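User: I'll paste a sequence; please echo it back and then give the predicted structure.

Assistant: Echoing your sequence first, then the prediction.
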Amino acid sequence: MTPEIALQKAVRIRLTSEPNVIALVPAANILDRNGRPNPRPSIIIGEGMSRDEGDSIARNLTRVWMDLHIWIKEPSTTGVKAVVGAIRTALRERLEAGNVGIHIVDAYVESARFLRDPDGETSHAIVTIDARVEVV
């Protein structure tokens, strides 16, 4: 398993088991998919990026960024802001990679953007998670 996949799985498991998140977005609507329209409300695991880090010869630390897209049918951005708050709280506790040999050292919400969809009925947020993942 790669650091990127380990982080994705750990984030999805955390979000689908966190009562404050699933009170706002059903667990069945927290998805890794490509296609529109997305269910409303939903959290879609989106784009990402990674970079090998570390000054050691082992080169076993990877920095991973992952975007989550939140979609809610609402005229304001209040709902997506509430979901982002729930995600931020859910990530305050350390994530478990669920795989022997991979350790998620740290993961947190680096940034959040709040947007209105051109359809005039949908709010959208993009959350970027910044993580350090170590292969041990």
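Residues 3-17 form the longest helix (15 residues). The chain has a mean pLDDT of 92.
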